[in-house]
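Me: I keep going back and forth on a fold encoding question. No explanation is needed for now; the record alone will do.

Assistant:
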Amino acid sequence: MRKAFNRAAERLRQWFGKTPDGKPAKTGPRGHAVLNDPAANKSTAFTREERENLGLRGLLPHQVATQEEQEARIICQLRREPGDINKYVYLSALQDRNERLFYQTAINNIDEIMPLIYTPTVGEACQKFSHLYRNPRGLYITPDDKGHIREMLDNWSEEDVRAIVVTDGERILGLGDLGANGMGIPIGKLALYTICGGIDPAKTMPVMFDTGTDNQSLRADPLYQGYPHPRVRGAAYDDLMEEFIAAVKDKFPKAMVQFEDFKTENAFRLLDTYRGELPSFNDDIQGTAAVALAGVIASARVTGEDLRDARIMFLGAGSAATGIADLMVKELQSRGLTEEEARGRISLVDSKGLVTTGRETIAANKAPFAQDHAPADFLSAVKDIKPTILIGATGVAGGFTKEVVEAMAELNERPVIFALSNPTSHAECTAQQAYEWSGGRAVFASGSPFAPVERDGKTFTPGQANNAYVFPGIGLGVTLGEVTEVSDGMFLAAARTLADMTGEDDLAKGNLFPPLKEIRKVSAKIAEAVMETAAAENRLGIARPADIAGFIRKGMYDPSYGQPAPVPRKPGAKPPGCPPK
């Protein structure tokens, strides 16, 4: 009987923070330990009872706030911060001290906050990452750690990691080799996994595969936080990655790995090597492909053209461009074209001009799209091949010149022009330029956000072909379904689902994608499509739920405090003097 009473008393302490006589329990985190735990901290929203039970009495101001009031305070202060990089730092600090408030605020204000925590601001944040460094976040692996990676994973605080984003920092956005400063990318991507896809942040892990940098200015910077040596390559690089993947499979057997911002050669090689060993994908190759394909499918509803008749030209022939091209081939095949016919619809232009069969050497990822055509510069190739769709993935600003856009407008009643390079400063053209140079007829999308454009009394709201429309839903479906391999069919399903969710009102405004405020709904639908595809392909690692949609909704992380909140003192009110958006 005594043992049963002790067990009941312990359960009471765990559940209610009280001893059997009703007094506050003294076990477990209390006081500043609670306030310093970002996953547990609610700051001024702790109720009177919680303050008493958790040893917080006197450690917080008198008023008990609602999460909504806290959010309003955050937004007002955010808008007072001078410059986007200061806003990025402010939001990072919020994430470090109150995780649930960070995510709730981001979800409810996604149009305002997503550009601050990811593109375009994350580019500047990565460039300055070592100088902005505050609190540790993520796992760093260097060549000095060879032979120790498995024990390093034991240092991670969580035992059930399901989503890992790893980069080696060699090709960060369009900014090039940023070494260990590239850690800002996995951190930002995983924040979007939670904000957009509802993956529990406790189940995520950002990884910096820091094998050095060939950026001499970084190595010469006394504040640089990374491995201060030239990049390790060849067998030493591959052995270190092999050890990392083996350690992940052992420590976190249900984890999905996303490869991010690797140089083209490594990007394809690592994807081919490991996609069959554990659920993994490369967002630059496959995520970009899915969101671009969704935009192309949606654009056909505007142009009225049959996608089977499309002629698609890429400016850029790296991992993003050829990844998009490969997925488009599969989509065209599904619409009745042979593989040869589908590849014949696609052409690539790189720094040497049109990729042709006459070249002495052609990279393996470009070779399937080489045209039987005389060498040609970009503008000449546009005039000769007469593309209906132009996609930029160069990382170089200004590639779509006035002459190129005018040529596209002359060839097509509604030219489809995608300037996908990030950040905004590296876009092939701006939204303003696309609409102006095409006489307002362009069907435009970009990788980073552009403001609405007014022309001839009409407002164009350019769509952002942001990978955040796709990879969080892919990750949600893969992790909840414990999918054994991430297949091309899942990316096709994601692209078609995203295209279907673009409404006629969105298209009428010039937007080929659903509003960002709907992104969690989009992610849930994509996760459902991924799990349905996995089930059909026999890649689902759990018994197929009878109600997949309900299963996904139940599995999505909810950052609200999860308790009845006190009545706001002034419902809906914002602090006085709050700057406008």
